[in-house]
Amino acid sequence: MAGQVYLRRSGYQKLLEQLEFLKTTERIRIAKAIGEARAQGDISENAEYDAAKDAQAHNEARISECEGQLADVAFIEDLNIPSDKVFIGATIEIQDLDTKEKVSYTLLAPEEVEFADDGLSVFSPIGKGLLTKQVGDEAVIKVPAGTKRFKVLSIKR
Asked: Which of 33, 62, 87, 134 would be 52's cystine partner, CB 3.0–4.6 Å?
């Protein structure tokens, strides 16, 4: 058990859809590839067979991971999260104080970020650096490329 996974209902649905895809379409595709590789004869030196078996192992691991995440979900919408601070589930507009560029993000669990166009993981350097900030607050955040300075312009739930 990895611990609580915080998702929006839309992220939960997309994770369910991904799990169904992995269990059906992807399993069938991989089984077919294994069968085709096996039909080529000696599997001891068959790169296609090895690749298909690796894909099968990866797929089964991903299925297990998705099932674990779905078992430990807490819906962000059901949590009593302050709306005046940057926390998971908040859509924020920030301004880079050096470039003056404005961007919007929704702070999400890493499990949901891959499904969201504007998602930002709460565990990313910028996500962590903005947590608990309020409108008007500035944050100086170390990122792999150096240090970035942001100002929180708005917070929506």
From this structure: 33
